[in-house]
Amino acid sequence: MRTIFTIVILLSAATGSAFAHAHLDHATPKVGSTVAQSPKEVVLWFTEKLEPAFSSIEVRNEQGAAVSMGKATVIGDRTQLRVPLKALPPGSYKVIWRVLSVDTHRTQGDFTFRVGQ
Ligand SMILES: [Cu+2]
User: What spacing in Å lies between the alpha carbon of 14 and ligand 1's midpoint?
Assistant: First the structure.
């Protein structure tokens, strides 16, 4: 009886945390997209509210140099993370994000976008 009770608790905890993590919902520039003009900023939309002190975006060019300006800020209803960009010449850029959601879970990921053809 006690074993069954424990299993039920573990299952509900696992399900709860899976839904509570902050996953990337969508981004601008769009994930994997090619944009004609240098974007002024990267904005990421997450599925959970973020802790600003522990949420960051790095944007790097093909040589690995940072092209984002300053620290990312949490905006909107705290589910959006934004960072301004330098003027980007044509090329491929990598966006690396690391966030802490308000439920204290960390998630991270990356994607690329292109400027030009
Ligand atoms: Cu979580």
Answer: 10
Dump pLDDT digits (tens) for 17-64: 455 789 999 999 999 999 999 999 999 999 999 999 999 999 999 999
Q: Is residue 9 part of a domain?
A: no
Measured in angstroms, how far is the CA atom of residue 107 from the centroid of ligand 1?
A: 8
Q: Who contacts 44 (Cβ-Cβ below 8 Å, separation ≥6)?
A: 24, 27, 57, 80, 81, 82, 95, 97
For the chain, the domain total comes to 1
Q: Residue 62: inside a domain, yes or no?
A: yes
